[in-house]
Amino acid sequence: MVFLSAPKWLRSRLTDRFWRVQEVLKYARHFRGRKNRCYKLAVRSVRRAFVKSTKARREKKRFLRALWITRIEAASLEHGLKYPSFISNLLKSQVELNRKVIADLAIYEPKTFKSLAALAQRRRQEGFLAALGDGKEPEGIFSRIVHHY
Amino acid sequence: RYVRQLQRLQLLFSPTAADSRGARQFVEEVALDFARQHPDVVLYVSPRTGLAPVLLAEYLNGTVREELIASKTSEEIKQLATKLAGQSGLDIIRIRKPFHTDNPSIQGQWHPLTNKPSALTVQGPRLQPQ
Prior knowledge:
The complex is a heterodimer.
Chain A: H1 17-25, H2 39-78, H3 83-92, H4 99-108, H5 110-133
Chain B: E1 6-13, H1 21-37, E2 42-47, E3 54-59, E4 64-68, H2 74-86
Parallel strand pairs in B: 1-2
Antiparallel strand pairs in B: 1-3, 3-4
Helix pairs in contact in B: 1-2
């Protein structure tokens, strides 16, 4: 659509302007104030919104992990264990569940979570016996490691 | 067994307009082969003057999708038609979670009284379990 001579230049008009503007405004419809109506303000707000949403994808992972940890801590305190000892004893008993799954279990399957907490507690006691008892008592049952290779 | 979700494809184009050239070529050359390769899709070809040429896809769950085929070659229209034939009628938006359950909890969802001892099991200095 390149017109080479100047007198013909005035004959080309932009007919698409409405749709080009709507393409931007459709992402600004739920904003507050004049940003959801006026194109000039909306362009800036929409660009910032996209940039923020791109950067927030990295933060979302951190935020969700912190949320799961809070929930697991609350649930394990109900059963008398603190979060660091719960997690470390679960790992020592070779239960490799991630925090998302343990948090979902704590909400939707409370009895399973109670048994996990009891397992962590038992492993904790066996750990104390192994560290303080000095070899005369037999090895703890839940401290045995299963090799899968 | 696979059930194709595409019910019918309506090809609406004008017999004389310039942007329907690809649609006319598609109807002349490729449409019969396409219809034979996709026996469970019904292909309707109807003339429509004055408006832009359009490929209308209707799915089993009721969604209707319109695709503009103005100034497209017959090869591109064939690719578009095969793409529509492979889709289901669900709307194309971001799926928030790739999983869904109607019964998320089997043991009963946690509520603040799940892990508290009830009046039947309280062991106090004076209260006995009844």
